[in-house]
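Lab notebook, bench 4. We co-purified these components, and the gel suggests they stay together. Before we commit to crystallization screens, I want a quick structural picture of the whole thing.
Request: model the full complex, all chains together.
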Amino acid sequence: MIVIAVVIIVSCSDVQRKPSRVYMPDMAYSRAYETYSVTEEVKDSLKKHGINFSNLPVPGTIKRGEMFPFALLKDKDGDSTNYVASKQIPNPIASLDSVQSVESERLYLVNCGICHGPKLDGNGPLYKGGEGPFPAKPATLVGDAKYEAMPAGQMFYSVTYGKNKMGSYASQLDTRQRWMVIHYIKSKQMAGKAGSSNSADSTAKK
Amino acid sequence: MHAATGDFSTFMPQIVTMYYRLIAKRIYLSFFLVALITLSNKLSAQDGKALFQSNCASCHSVFKQVTGPALRGVTGRVPDNKLLHAWIHNNATVLASGNKYFTDLFNQFSKTPMNTFPNLSDADIDAILKYIETTPPPSTTPTDGGGPGGKEPDNSFLYGILTIILAVIMLTMLQVNSNLKKLSDDKEGVPSQEPIPFYRNKAYITFVILILFVIGGYYLVQGAIGLGRNKDYQPEQPIFYSHKVHAGTNQISCLYCHGNALQSKHATVPALNVCMNCHAAINEYTGKEKLYRENGEEVNGTAEIQKLYSYTGYDPKAGKYTEPGKPVEWTKIHNLPDHVFFSHAQHTNAGKVQCQTCHGPIQEMNEVKQFADLSMGWCINCHRTTKVNFPDSLGNDGNKFYSIYEKFHKDIKAGDSITVEKIGGTECQKCHY
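Here is the predicted assembly.
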C-alpha cells in the first residue's frame, strides 16, 4: 500500500495544465461578449439569428479626443509617391508641455527605444551593435545627417506604415501619440546638434 | 638581440660582428614591416565593419536576407568588380543600362530601390566587401541554460517518508515494550491478560482515526477553498512564446505588447502585426539559452517562429504576406469571475502597480503560470495594506481624485456640518443594488 501511495505521489506532475474544478459557478462566466471571446464562428452563428456583430469600429470613424487621421495612404510596392509627398506635412503638435514631454519620452522608450536605443543612437537592446537578434541596423536618429534632415511628416509616414524592416506602429500608438514621439525625436536631434556644434542653449536654433 | 651580437663580438672577428649586426637590423625591419602590414590590415577590416554598419546595415545583413539580400558571397555572384562598384555608387544607372542580374534582383525585392552612395570611395567599397567576405558567422550553438528544471528539490516528500519510518519504529517499540512487560510479568508470576494485537487495541484505533480525520479534514477544506481557484495554472499555448526571452533577455517593455494596460480594462494580447514588427526580420531563434517546456521537453525556437508565420501567412523567404492571416487562439490564464470588476487601467495608472506585483516574475517565465491565486482575500489584503499616493503639499503628482475629501475634512474642521447625505449617502444605490 505504501508503494502504491509513493507511486501515486511521484507520478503526479506539479505542472497544472488544466484549470481547476468549479462548484456552482454562479455569475462566474460572462453572458456578454467579452474581449476576444467573439470568434469568426460565433459571428457566423449570430448571423444566422439575424444579428450583425462587429467588434471593430466602423471604418472612417474617429474616436473621441483623437486627432484627424493622416491624409496620405500607404504606397504600393515599388512606388514612393506618398512617401515623398509626406515631407510636406508638418507636425500638428507645435509644442509639448512638461507632462506631455515626459509622456512622449515614455512612449519613445517603450515603443522605439528597444531598437533605436534609449539614446536614439540606433543601438537598442535588440540590435546591440550587431550582437542582438535583430539583423538590420536601426536608424541612428541622433548623429546621422540623413535622419536629422528628414522632415517630421516623412517620419510620421514611416511610423504609420512601416519602412524597410520596421513595422507599422499605427496599432500601438494613436495619431497623437505618434506625433508626440516624433516631436520628442526632433527635439532630441535639435539638442544633439546644438550639443555637438557649440554648447550654447539648445532652443536657440529652433 | 643586440646583447647577443655583443657577446659574439668578444670572441669573433670584426667582420662577423658586422654581419650579425646586419642580420639583426634586417630582422628588426622585417618585424616592423610585418607588424605594420597586419596593423593596416586590421585597420581596413575595422573600417569595413564601421562603414558597413553606418551605410549598409540598415537594409543588408551579411548572413541574412533583410530588406535587401544577404551579402556574403556577393563578389562571387557579381564577379565584375567594376560593375559592383558602379552598382553601389549609383544603382539607377546600372538598372538603366539593363543589366540582367541586377534587374532580376530589383524585381525580386518588389522594386524597392537601393540608396545611392556616391560619396563612398573605391577603397571604402573594397573595405566593406572585404569585411563582408571575411567576417565570421555568428555562433549559434545554444548553451544549456542550467537544464530544464533548475528548481530546488522539494524536501516535504523526504520529510513525509521520515515521519512514516519514525511512526513505524515507534509502533514496533510500543509492541516490544508490551511484550517485554508481559514476559517480566510472567516471570514474576503476576497474572496478566493476553496482549491485544495492535489492530484491535482501542487506543491505537482511536489514534489512527483521529489522524485520518485531521489529514482528511485538511485536504477537504483545502480542496473546497481551491474550487474555482487557479494558482499555478500553466496551460500549453498554441505557440511557445517565452516571456523570458522577450521581456527578460531582450528587455522589451511589457507595455510594448500589452500597451492597453494603461488605458483599458484589459491589458490585451497584442495583434499579430505587433509580433511581426520584429519577427518580419528575426526568423530564427539564436539565443544563448536552450528553451524547455515545464515538463523538460526541449523546444525549437525557430520552429515556434515558423508557427507564427503560418498564422500570419508570411513568407519569410519572399519577405511578403502571401496568405490570409488567422488569429492565434491563446488560452487565457488569468480569469476573474464575471461578478468581479477589475480594470488594469485603474491599477496601473492611478495605483502605479507594477505588472510583477500581481503576475509574478513574468520576465523569468518561459511558460506563463498564474502567480497569485486571484482570490478575494488576496485582493482585499493588498487593498488593506497599500497606501494611496496622494498629491504632495504643492498639489503635484499623485492621485488627485481624493482632494475633494480633503476639502470636506477642512470644512468639518472649520465647523461646517457635512452630513452623510451631502456626500451621497442617500443615493438609492448606496443601499439598493
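Confidence is low (pLDDT under 50) at residues 199-206 of chain A. Worth comparing against the SEC data before the next meeting. The helical segments of chain A are 2-11, 40-48, 81-85, 98-116, 145-149, 152-161, 175-197.
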